[in-house]
Amino acid sequence: MLKIRDTYRYWIIYFFVFTIPLSQYFSVRILLILFVLTLSLGLNRFTLSNLFKNSWDILIYMSVLILGLLYTSDLTQGLRVLETNFSFLAIPIIVSSLQLNSKQLNNLWLAFILGLLTASAICLSFALFSFFHDHELGHFLYYDLTTPIGFQPTYFAYYLSFAICLLLYSLFSNQLAISRQVTIVGIFFMFLMLMLTASRTAYIGLLFVLSFFILKFLFNETERSNRWIALFSVFLLLVMLFVNYFDLNGSLMGSSEGTDYWERFILWEAAIRANPNPLFGVGTGDYKAILNQYYQAQGMTLFADESYNAHNEFIQLYFSNGIFGLLALCILICRPLYLSFKVQNSLGILIIFPFIIYGITEVFLGRFQGVVFFVFCHQLVITQYYLIKPKLFLGEESTLST
């Protein structure tokens, strides 16, 4: 009976991961159902010691957010922030109770990729239908492209960059759950979708990923059999360089008309200057009101009307929760990077490192789409560490014995 219950929960988490790139509405509800099932049926495998071992950095981060409620004046907004960050508690508890093995971990990666391919196909189909109706190319770009699934294009671009990384790594390591031909077609399709979203930060993140495969080919003789993957990566880099240098209207991306990055420097400076308490920040719920007051006082009425955040995750956490919040975020990102480096898990580094890039230009933990994506990646990379570590230890022992 217990085995049947666990099977159901595995299928539900596969379905949950499948819906992450498809629908925020459905994925958050499936996550809630899975969380309730875990609390009622899966606690036989759940222990607080395991949760702390796997997710102590997440618990520190959530503690900082909760502490920020004690000195915030807008408690309602603060509780909304905690609601957005619900995944930080739910996903670690679910993953800890399931005790995933390598095969199940790979199935989760695959479920995400299949969900993303489905979402991309839906977006492209709606864009084609709209184009045939009014012949406007704008339906294939940016917000219009991702409107059918209700996604912000920047977050969707993060998903695409992540999936391309997974598929390239699968090709490179010869650990394919699907055929090589299908994998290559999937990479090209998602690369096309990434170009249509035109996200600069996703581009830079993927630049790091593609550079990894090129460098592995250049400096590791044992990887020369995968030279075509390196050449494939060079091709993608060149295409990305060309497309991102010019926007789709032909103007330079670096010009003031083609980019909004000059605004980000103003937003970063505003959030730093508006923070009255560097140690604790303004509180988990007051960041929006106080930052808007600063905009108004400095004559930045457009920013106030649009209620812009800092557009930098590190500065945003510093502003809302002070140095404690900034340290909690750094621990949250650096821990899986360190553990991946410790067991020589290249995939873990390729997955987590881009979040540093994302955090420089976006508040990726400000929406459920970003929160659930980060926690999903974080917890699976940590799980990978505990799956690889015993094998690495046994390998060292056998080397010593010989």
Can you walk through the features of this model?
It is a single chain. The chain has 402 residues and is mostly helical. The protein has one domain. It has helices at residues 2-19, 24-41, 48-67, 75-84, 87-98, 102-134, 142-146, 153-173, 180-197, 200-219, 227-245, 261-274, 287-297, 301-306, 313-342, 346-361, 368-401. The model is unreliable at 248-260 and 396-402 (pLDDT under 50).
Secondary structure elements and pairings:
Layout: H1 2-19, H2 24-41, H3 48-67, H4 75-84, H5 87-98, H6 102-134, H7 142-146, H8 153-173, H9 180-197, H10 200-219, H11 227-245, H12 261-274, H13 287-297, H14 301-306, H15 313-342, H16 346-361, H17 368-401
Helix pairs in contact: 1-2, 1-6, 2-5, 3-5, 3-15, 5-17, 6-8, 8-9, 8-10, 8-16, 10-11, 10-16, 12-15, 15-16, 15-17, 16-17
Descriptors for this entry?
402 residues, globular
- Count of helical segments? 17
For the CA atoms, what is the radius of gyration? Answer: 22 Å
Strand content: under 5%
Total domain units: 1
Helical content class: over 70%
Query: What's the rounded overall pLDDT mean?
Result: 80
How does the helix and strand content classify structurally? mainly alpha
What is the H-and-E element order? HHHHHHHHHHHHHHHHH
Largest sheet: none
Terminal CA distance reads 45 Å
Cα shape: globular
Give start-end ranges of low-pLDDT stretches: 248-260, 396-402
Number of strands: 0
